[in-house]
Write a structure and sequence with these properties.
Structural class: alpha+beta
Distance between the termini: 171 Å
Oligomer: single chain
Low-confidence stretches: 289-311
Largest sheet: 3 strands, antiparallel
Mean pLDDT: 78
Radius of gyration: 60 Å
Strand order of the largest sheet: 3-2-5
Number of strands: 10
Shape: rod-shaped
Order of helices and strands: HEEEEEEEHHHHEHHEHE
Length: 311
Amino acid sequence: MGARLTGVLVALVVVVLGARSLFVVEQSGSALRTRFGRIVGNDYGPGLHVKSPLDQVHRFDRRLITSVYAGESFLTRDQQALSVDFDVKWRLADLRDYYQRTAGDEDLAAQRLADLVRGRLKSAVAQESLAEVTGSPRGGLGDAGFDAMRTAAHVLGVELVDLQLQRVDLTDESANVVYQRMEQGFNTQALQAGATGTIDADKIRSDADRKRADTLADATRQAAHIRADADARAAAIYAQAYGRNPELAAFTQSLQAYKSSIGREGDVLVITPEGDFFKYLLSPGGHPGANPGGTAGGRPGGRAGARTGGP
């Protein structure tokens, strides 16, 4: 019974020692061994590995890591304060250096990498204008600057793969200044447009007035020409008619004289009745002698007085 128990105990010890002497690394990872804090084995790839029971295994992920940094403050060459979000893509390069610099803490590694990137990126942004920063995915950081940053990152045992600006915003104070400048620019453009519009309107109005005056003058000339032609034709017609009937001409002229002389308010006419003026009033045939007694206007002999329109 005692021998069996001893055998079981020995088997358990062998199993435990065997379990503590083996370790597995996943496909996407790597590992290193430490003994009492000192590195004794480095860069174990995927698979099953042997170690001392006294050793401690530290496993790491070899896949690409993206660290995001938000709300970083930058100042451009034209003194524009910016709030920038950027991300850094990196992966493990040297496990020994990485473990010695960061003790295998991924958050600590990301923080130290951010300090390194932030300083160099601020120097690059400080040499660029706002337009150049917003137009560049790396904020004006060229290939030479990025290569220098990668070299510095190797000290941490990591490989810097990429750096990208995700968001570039003005601070509230800078945004207000920019908006004020934009407003002033728009106001200036509006004033210039208004002045140009006024000049154009005056020119259009002047051209319209000139065309109107030219049109009226041309219409007046045409009307005068038409009126003259009409008067000439009317005169010709009258002359033709009067030539055929002189008595009609005399009668028409007398009617025109009556229309022009009689019936105006306040006018007074003093005319001898024996004259030709009243001949068509005294007799339809236009002969003064047709009125017996030689009276004019019902008065025998003498002068005839006519008052029209007066009291």
